[in-house]
Amino acid sequence: MKKRFFTLIVFIFSIALLIATVVADEGMWPISEIHKLALRSKGLEISPEKIFNPKGLSLIDAVVQVGATGSFVSQNGLIITNHHVAYGAVQAASTKEKDYIKHGFLARNRFEEIPAKGRTARITESYRDVSDAVLSVVKEGMDFAKRTKALEKKIKEIVAETERKNPGKRAEVAEMFSGKTYVLFIYTYLKDIRLVYVPPRSIGEFGGEVDNWMWPRHTGDFSFMRAYVGPDGSSAEYSPENVPFHPKKFLKVAPEGVDEGDFVFLLGYPGRTYRHRTSHFLAFEEEVRMPYVADWYAWQISVMEKMSEGDRAVAIKHLSRIKGLSNTMKNYRGKLKGLKRVRLVERKRKEEKALQNFIETDENLKAEYGNILEEIDKIYTQRREQAEYELILDYLRRSVNMIYFGYTAYEAAVELQKKDLERESAYMDRNFHLTKERLQLTLRNYYEPTDKVILKEMLKRAAHLPKNQRISAIDNLIQDANPENAIDDFIKKTYSETRLNETQFLMEALAKSPQELKKMKDPFIDFAEGLYPTYQKLKEVQKARKGALDKLYSKLIDVKKKFLKKDFIPDANKTLRLTFGRIRGYQPADAVYYKPITTVNGIIEKTTGEEPFDTPPKLMDLFRAKDFGRFESPTLKSVPVCILYDTDTTGGNSGSPVLNARGELVGINFDRTYEATINDFAWSEDYSRSIAVDIRYVLWVTQKFGGVDYLLKEMNVLNK
Ligand code: GLU
């Protein structure tokens, strides 16, 4: 009997071990945690210290943040990332005559490279836990808005002190667990980034929005940029005298690629996940916020597409914005479908019920944690009540350029009167130039007819808000008149009188006191002044809400740990993370199985000649001639294009290097499958799959299609 029991235990244990070795895990692991992962037993063939070594060089030194993620692939600062990550910069450099979006961009040598406007490359230098210092300002029983402000102020002080001690570096404090743990990161920002090679849209965006968030995929979503520094090696703004940056570490490229079942891992800067939030948050997202935003984006996209018809110069202005909106819209629709499919809210509610039962079993637990879930519920109920009001206020500034310009100018004037550390982050000395840069980039793509239509729609929506949620500045302009006519008159007058569409005027407005600003007599600045008290009031509400939730979520994690007897990893927060898994297909629906590697054959199958399924004739010729060179997969007898794997990723992981068991580059992550869009709320090994462009396709296109041999030589893939 004893022996049988022992055999059973051994059997169960081996199964568990087997599962642990073949199955990927949920987890965007902070780099400080990866030593806990036993990565070698999961398939890694190098020492984990080669990935992260706080005492020396390691792979993480090759990974940068360039909007999303990128990595160095040569000693001369060459960066590989996604086509869609470089997109904004490519658009900013494009004109009707030099349409780099359509035709791609190729620098035949270093001197032909052009600035990637608005791009920086952020390198992680070091990090340390500062939770105690940050939380030292929190007092028991503190008012929640005060709590949020005290934490913000303390974080600003830590950042200022760190930057003072580390000249030329930037410090940022990341909240790991809400209201609980904080890590101080020190970064180097490289400011002179240039475009090197960007394939044409028909490769880099092949499949467009139809294929976005989908598998099987055939998009060549990659591009090359290069980082430059001043002649003395320090970070510097663009200058022709600058020299290529020499990274401490660059990735080795593996032109042989990967096969199904191979172990892979990714390093990168995933943006945001919400796995530690409760059912109340998820229900709010599912029932209120995401459907509203998805519809609002769809509406804006249709306006912009209409405006773009028949005029390429106007279309170019809208391209990047349409792409961003469509991307989020489809992501949200995927999430909404997924939430229903897996009944996530219901599942969370069950988990919370079990947790509540656990709490109720013990008087001490009950005293400490008994009403957490109820309190969180109350906060989301209140948020629901004025959801549309908050959404309109939010999108009024985000979607209408003129409100964005006018409001930023007005807020800057108020904030600049305060001491640096007391200002809102966007107006602090360390950030104000970035705020101005963002405004200028937006202004480059400003198109008045679109802006007018969007403002009109926003005002019409605001005019229908319930009585207790009115926006007084908007009510004032409507008064007793017919709202539609009043809105039309307002729009006609403001757009004909404003000068905020002139860069110089806008920049001048950003350097004024409130009194001086008034003298500029710009209708959008005056309107912003009217809106200001409403936004201030909302900010207070949101800070109080955050303060309350921070406290509650922090306690929730504590009691969940007690209940489930396990540790958790923090949600993604734009800090460096590792995730691992395998090249692996999946089953999206009954009786359907998707293989994990696509090839150029699929491009040919999908090609219709019509955008977004048009393929450059040269690529078709290369395919017909079977001119695959060394990039042909011996098993697939073609060039692999995209790969699928079961790691844990989200937005921000765009451009993440996909590395093989030896830590060599085999792909560039760029997307997830439609089912995996709910990753942000819950990861599952059944549906969580991420997508990369295969390095063999990157190299094949770069060499055979682009004719850019020098890049392959630079990456040591071709002999020099
Ligand atoms: N394609 C995604 C995006 O553009 C990035 C990667 C992901 O979210 O999986 O947001």
* Tally of helical segments: 27
Strand content: 5-15%
Low-pLDDT segments: 1-24
Compute the number of strand runs: 21
Specify the helix fraction band: 40-55%
Radius of gyration based on Cα positions: 26 Å
> Structural class of the helix and strand makeup?
alpha+beta
Cofactors, ions and other ligands in the entry: glutamic acid
Oligomer: single chain
How would you sum up the global shape?
globular
* Main pleated-sheet profile: 11 strands, antiparallel
Rounded to the nearest angstrom, the distance between the terminal CA atoms is: 69 Å
Q: Report the mean per-residue pLDDT as an integer.
A: 95
What does the model show?
α7 packs across α23 (523-564). The N and C termini lie far apart (69 Å). With 720 residues, the protein is of the alpha+beta class. The relative contact order is 0.16. 48% of the residues lie in helices and 15% in strands. The chain contains 27 helices and 21 strands. Bound molecules: glutamic acid. Glutamic acid (GLU) binds next to β20.
